[in-house]
């Protein structure tokens, strides 16, 4: 029986938690991709080996998908790096906490505060290893006898506007020199994304870029430069995560509020050397020893500008194209400004010029007004009107003169958000959702194999997808 006859498109296995698949049939890979796509709660997967006379015969699917098997080994065994930003730990920072810093914004964000919460990870038995890492880094940088360091602990720190809007959450390490216990410094943990919508933006963005035939492997190891723009800074976990995991990433960050910038550096452990002055040069001519200790190899590729997004994009070098643009810019009232998605605005027109014309990918974090299943309806009176309206505006402003491309939205698990994607490099596949989703899932496996992120990108693609 053909797979299309046995497996009906659109079926969702809401209760499937564990699945065993035999690979003796030539269509095992296609079936696997369908099950992964349509099983949002799948947590256990077992692949039986070939049996009988087929055991020693190489499968064409097996030959062409070694990268898939690498991911499946991680998926089946629970291997890989532990995700300290797993949503399971959100109970540690979602409520309560104590304020460690507070300032008043002059840019409409009201009272900007940073609230601290204790973190259970990393556990104390791993602190000594981190202390040795700091000591070795110090000796490497300074070229002299090793300095001793002490880990004081780890905290979640949340940036809030007016005590109502939780703008961002990061994990911070506090440490000091043993001989100078009052010299406490804070280091934001660059491997940790605490909020699901950030993981969704990273996952769908990188998968879309990989599906556009972008050379992800050479960018990952620093042989190819990946130009990234982040509009909206918050605590800075997104640009820091990207620069940490992609050695070729060069990240421009635009933040309108100087209070947000200062709080992210002072209270949330973001690299101080990344801050840019109005002259276009670094605010700090050279990083100090502790900054080099924490961030050498990363902070040189981060450029944090205080500017309106429109002013920045209009002034930016005309020959500087961005491979990826991330948009997460909400004000003190938790509103995404219309000026950032108005298709007729100077900002969107300039954004269209700066986004790479072959594979450029824009990812926007949006509050969702509907379930993902409602978003690709054409009826403007149907639920999802706001997300469709924003998506169509970007489609008009960024895709009107492009021969290829795709606009779609992915549902964010656990939160009422969607990641809206404008991809200039992906094919529309006749707006066939299953084909598009399958292409993205295969690309996400490639991303997982290359970057070894602490979470599988696939988890943020199988939640639901709508074509705009």
From TrEMBL:
<dbReference type="InterPro" id="IPR029063">
    <property type="entry name" value="SAM-dependent_MTases_sf"/>
</dbReference>
<protein>
    <recommendedName>
        <fullName>S-adenosyl-L-methionine-dependent methyltransferase superfamily protein</fullName>
    </recommendedName>
</protein>
<dbReference type="InterPro" id="IPR051419">
    <property type="entry name" value="Lys/N-term_MeTrsfase_sf"/>
</dbReference>
<dbReference type="GO" id="GO:0032259">
    <property type="term" value="P:methylation"/>
</dbReference>
<keyword id="KW-0808">Transferase</keyword>
<keyword id="KW-0489">Methyltransferase</keyword>
<comment type="similarity">
    <text>Belongs to the methyltransferase superfamily.</text>
</comment>
<dbReference type="GO" id="GO:0008168">
    <property type="term" value="F:methyltransferase activity"/>
</dbReference>
